[in-house]
Amino acid sequence: MDKVRAEILSLGLPRTTAARIVIAAPAQQIFDLLADPRCHSLFDGSGTLQGSISGPVRLYLGAKFGMAMKIKVPYRITNTVVAFDEGRNISWCHLMKWTWNYELVDLGNGKTQVTEKFDATDIPWFAAKWLNATGALERNPKWMAKSLVQLKAICES
After folding, report:
1. Element spanning 83, H or E
2. For the chain, what is the domain count?
3. What pTM does this model have?
4. Which domain range does residue 93 map to?
5. Rounded distance, CA 63 to CA 86, Å?
């Protein structure tokens, strides 16, 4: 059996990375997981997300939610939902101003294309400095691809 993989996309944009996968599940089922911050750690491919610590059970435009994180040391981060189109698109950002975006496209026959995008195009200088110092942009595509594979496994089980 072939190993399930997500496609890492080359967007040709600085400080922007993305990955894509097709999941044999309805878009709304997938979106429901993305819109529930308590579920994010279930499919986090980075290993940095430790769990949801605050916020609503279901996200909405403008919702704030806190996450426990760990990259070498534990910390907490508050995210704000900056785009929300039920069943199709959800994005959030935090104090560094980069966004995590999930776009869902119904392909028919119960299949959905899911694209995860990290966009740090319009961020403050200190955030750009942090991204460069940590090598996050080099790691993000692999972590996003792993997250999408885990999301697929959850949705198809």
Report:
1. strand 73-85
2. 1
3. 0.93
4. 17-156
5. 14
